[in-house]
Task: structure prediction
Amino acid sequence: MMTTVAIVEDNAVMRKLFRQWIDGAPGLHCVFDCATAEEAIAEIPRHRPDVVLMDIHLPGESGIACTARLKEVLPSVQVIMVTAYRNHELIFKALQAGACGYLLKRSSPDELLKAITEVRAGGAPMTSEIARMVVEAFQKKPATSGSDELTTREVQILAQLSEGLSNKEIGARREISYDTVRAHLRHIYEKLHVRGRTEAVGKYLKSSVMPQ
Result:
């Protein structure tokens, strides 16, 4: 099944390079690319891509604001932020806006294509450094948001979910069975009132202690 991708990147050389990588990979196709948030907001809903590669720093409206607006009209679209900088505050704000992954612009073709595959499988690709910060933020504050508080084990599993780990990998890390992981995830989804992995991670990020 073909995965469609849109690219929002103001660097023309980088935009062309990303498009070549995507169109050269089996099962992937770039349906649209542009240089500004304004053009992305106007055109991407018409193309309805599965995944958007979004530069954080854009001329005019930022990639973070663009992500939030796109998620309003295309809730199912998966946005991967792409940046040249390790700015933790911006990364957290991007995740809170609805992004589900983070890549550095110097990432290799394999890393970029793997990230696209991961988000389509329900993962949240990001560097190990950012993943550790997300885990630490999870552990500072339990998610309430009008729902039952998560148990310590559920917080741990949700944190590993944010790293893009599969149910099998989470089970191996926590030394519990695959079925036990599924049961914990079911309870997490019920408590957070969400339908799946990406929504759970996004909602928990919004309720956790993040830099403002």
